[in-house]
Design a protein that fits this description.
Blueprint (H helix, E strand, L loop, with lengths): L6 E6 L4 E8 L3 H9 L1 H7 L6 E7 L6 E7 L5 E12 L3 E9 L5 E15 L2 E10 L2 H8 L2 H19 L1
Antiparallel strand pairs: 1-2, 2-8, 3-4, 4-5, 5-6, 6-7, 7-8
Helix pairs in contact: 1-2
């Protein structure tokens, strides 16, 4: 494993933005698949001891993923992700909102922009997250950095088994 892989996490509270950059020692195609295929997302998309479970996913512009992060005692935290733009293998954008188990959204939500690039076998993923409200950003940041860092570590370990 390359210990020099970049991980950067910055918050601009005034702009209600979060900027995340993470490198992976895997091909761009494999990393893209890990972010866009439900069967792979479910293997890394929740911080331990939680697990991710996708109810359905239709990865196309206007399509959605409806999934839950499930705790060991069975508590579910549902989210709806609606894909707003897709440029295969290099970029996709989505609108994300927490929801209840019946897919009723808890607004406001956030807009996510993922960019993928590869150089010398290292894939870089740049993620920007715009939050519709400052209050949502503050609430999100309470545990988000720790949880998201854990999920990206899960992804790094999964990619090592798939490469």
């Amino acid at each position: 494993m390359n210990k020099d892989l970049l991980f950067d996490f910055n918050v601009d509270k005034a702009a209600k933005m979060v900027y995340i950059t993470r490198e992976f020692n895997a091909s761009q195609s494999l990393v893209w698949d890990a972010f866009t295929k439900a069967e792979l997302l479910d293997q890394w998309g929740a911080p331990a001891p939680m697990r991710a479970q996708t109810k359905y996913m239709d990865f196309k512009v206007g399509g959605r993923r409806f999934y839950a992060m499930i705790s060991p005692d069975g508590q579910e935290r549902w989210s709806v992700q609606e894909f707003t733009s897709i440029t295969p293998k290099t970029n996709f954008k989505m609108y994300n909102a927490f929801a209840d188990k019946d897919e009723n959204r808890e607004l406001p939500g956030s807009e996510w922009d993922y960019n993928f690039s590869e150089q010398n076998g290292i894939t870089r993923v740049d993620i920007t997250i715009y939050n519709e409200s400052f209050e949502r950003l503050e609430k999100l940041l309470e545990g988000f950095k720790i949880g998201f860092t854990m999920t990206l570590k899960n992804l790094e370990e999964l990619l090592a088994t798939l490469s």
